[in-house]
Amino acid sequence: MKIIKLFSDAFVVIIITASIILLLPNMLKAVGINSFVILSGSMEPLIHTGSVVMVDSREKDIEVGDIIWISANGDLNSI
């Protein structure tokens, strides 16, 4: 009986963890934060090829020293 309870608890933890992992990107996207993978070396040496970055596309002032990303349609975002 204890083994069944142990597997049941582990299953619940796995389901909750998987749900968070799958829902988190959508929740962030809803508030204007997107994730991208850097595909080229154009951001080197600060951001390496293959790195995952979070882009804040909410309206804000850009300051000296901010890393910016310009989308294909010309929108300006900060990383």
Note down, in words, how this protein is organized.
This protein has 79 residues and is an alpha+beta fold. Helices cover 37% and strands 20% of the residues. The protein contains one helix and four strands. The strands form two sheets. A two-stranded antiparallel sheet has the order 1-2. A two-stranded antiparallel ribbon has the order 3-4. β3 and β4 form a beta hairpin. The radius of gyration is 19 Å and the shape is elongated. It starts with a helix and ends with a strand. The mean pLDDT is 81.
Keywords:
1 helix, 79 residues, alpha+beta, two-stranded antiparallel ribbon, 4 strands, elongated, two-stranded antiparallel sheet
Summarize the structure.
By secondary structure, the chain is of the alpha+beta class.
Output the number of helix runs: 1
The stretches of 5 or more residues where confidence is low (pLDDT under 50) are none
Please give the order of strands in the largest beta sheet.
1-2
Distance linking N and C termini: 51 Å
Q: Please indicate the percent range of residues in DSSP E strands (runs of 2 or more).
A: 15-25%
- Kindly report the average pLDDT value: 81
Gyration radius from CA atoms, angstroms: 19 Å
Return the string of H and E elements: HEEEE
Fraction of residues in helix: 25-40%
Which structural class matches the secondary elements? alpha+beta
Topology, number of strands: 4
Largest sheet: 2 strands, antiparallel
Shape: elongated
